[in-house]
Specification:
Layout: E1 2-3, E2 6-7, H1 9-24, E3 34-39, E4 43-50, E5 53-60, E6 63-64, E7 71-74, H2 77-81, E8 87-88, H3 92-103, H4 111-122, H5 130-143, H6 154-171, H7 192-195, H8 204-207, H9 210-217
Antiparallel strand pairs: 1-2, 3-4, 4-5, 6-7, 7-8
């Protein structure tokens, strides 16, 4: 599944699809659900449909870094041609562990997720990615005491999240949550080299583009 020292995404995706196809007929629901594979440059998408019901699952392949919660995956071919780094580290597993850690300690375990869902839905198409909203909410969870995340405080927490976003836009730094964050719970395992690095800025593109920054502020 490797080309030279890199994980070959095409071969890996093909191998995975073959395994699913061979196993699909053993699943009791196979006769009532339609399974389709959707090729992608760095992942494998599975679409399940039954009448008007439809579910899409994206599988992202990667290599775990030691015993940490960081997985490294190959970038799309077009990114390689541009001379960028061949590998990048997705932090989805570490972020999911953070949300589970927080949920066990909140008065209302799902309130933070409702905040995230609300902003993601209402502000879809405004130029802010779901990753940016998730990052803002995660930072909010480490700055606002967890005892204040109860149902009656829902409007105030929405305001706090917007205020934090406004603060980030004013100064144009929105730091990645996992990298270089000293407030990460101890249960989230990072490679030692990642704990002391300076976190990248998700709003770096706005700092050099006044027009895009004005639009974001609006």
């Amino acid at each position: 599944l490797c080309t030279s020292s890199y994980l070959d995404m095409g071969d890996t995706s093909h191998w995975f699809c073959q395994l699913v196809r061979s196993s699909w007929l053993q699943v009791p629901q196979w006769h009532s659900w339609h399974l389709v594979f959707q090729p992608c440059s760095r992942s494998c998408r599975l679409q399940l449909s039954k009448g008007r019901k439809s579910l899409t699952v994206e599988m992202l392949f990667g290599v775990r870094q030691g015993d940490s919660d960081i997985f490294v995956v190959s970038q799309p071919t077009e990114a390689k041609k541009g001379g960028s780094s061949t590998f990048r580290g997705p932090y989805a597993v570490a972020e999911a562990k953070f949300f589970r850690h927080i949920a066990r300690r909140l008065p209302c375990e799902s309130l933070h997720l409702k905040c995230l869902q609300l902003f993601t839905c209402i502000l879809r198409g405004t130029g802010f990615s779901s990753s940016a909203w998730k990052t803002v909410v995660m930072h909010g969870l480490t700055t606002v005491p967890l005892s204040r995340w109860h149902r009656s405080a829902f409007p105030q927490r929405l305001w706090d999240i917007m205020a934090y976003l406004d603060h980030c836009l004013q100064l144009t730094p929105l730091e990645y949550f996992v990298l270089g964050n000293e407030r990460l719970p101890a249960e989230i395992s990072l490679p030692p080299a990642m704990r002391g690095v300076e976190p990248p800025n998700l709003f770096e593109h706005l700092a050099g583009d006044p027009a895009a920054h004005r639009e974001a502020m609006q």
